[in-house]
Amino acid sequence: xxxxxxxxxxxxxxxxxxxxxxxxxxxxxxxxxxxxxxxxxxxxxxxxxxxxxxxxxxxxxxxxxxxxxxxxxxxxxxxxxxxxxxxxxxxxxxxxxxxxxxxxxxxxxxxxxxx
Amino acid sequence: xxxxxxxxxxxxxxxxxxxxxxxxxxxxxxxxxxxxxxxxxxxxxxxxxxxxxxxxxxxxxxxxxxxxxxxxxxxxxxxxxxxxxxxxxxxxxxxxxxxxxxxxxxxxxxxxxxxxxxxxxxxxxxxxxxxxxxxxxxxxxxxxxxxxxxxxxxxxxxxxxxxxxxxxxxxxxxxxxxxxxxxxxxxxxxxxxxxxxxxxxxxxxxxxxxxxxxxxxxxxxxxxxxxxxxxxxxxxxxxxx
Lengths: 115, 241
What we know:
The structure holds two protein chains of two kinds. In chain A, 63% of the residues lie in helices and 0% in strands. By secondary structure, chain A is mainly α. By secondary structure, chain B is mostly helical. Chain B is built from ten helices and no strands. Chain B is globular. Classes of the chains: A mainly alpha, B mainly alpha. At the A-B interface, helix 1, helix 2 and helix 3 of A face helix 1, helix 2, helix 3, helix 4 and helix 6 of B.
């Protein structure tokens, strides 16, 4: 069980993020919970690529044959974090506009789409 | 309403939890990394591309097309946000108001931080192929500088150093530069985004890596301009009310 603990952590974070989305009472809080769900995928990716005793995949001070962790998942995660920030910004701008138009930020109160 | 929703969520989350836990229990134990692809990249980033940052070589060379698409997601999100929060005819953005509660000590501290942030941001962008960093991280660091300026001197100076048209033009130029450098690969008879420029010294230095440092600079420009525009747009929105 302790060998797969990190994967369990990722699943735990995902489920709590989903709970936050479902029970959210404010649009900004909902966007934050979406960010939490996204960060659970980062934990999963990094756990898959981890090697016990491995160094970071930067070969400036260590010879190139040193055992290092997987760089592929790190490359995937690196761009994803920065892109997540801007997508969250877009979602927050949308929720700002919705709040201005309907005078409320509660997801339950905003029921019908108005053109 | 709440009780029924929570009950349904509990059912769904329970099923999802069981499915996910079953799925991850089939993965190899944490720390037992077997993938051959990662080890190949680690071993070949130095000899084949003359860079010491294997992650940087992946982001801008081996998986450079993936990064191009992520960059355009970023560009689209920034453009969408800037369009959503554009000033309408009735409103005009006022500047020059001092931030309430910022005195001389605050401003001095922030001004010192600005110098350090700009230097460090440029360092991270330009040394992406040598140490952990690269265009994306350095761009985000550089874009924190307008925020520091706003904290020190209020929105007026922020509007002056982050003009909308210039910064969104710079972001578009960064994205176009990245896509354009990829065309060099086609022009040289290879694949799009292939690393066709001279690779530089075998001992990784700031000019080694072929297209990798250039792509890093282009993405740093685009990410930095994108984030600065986001900061400007959101703070302008806040000061409009």
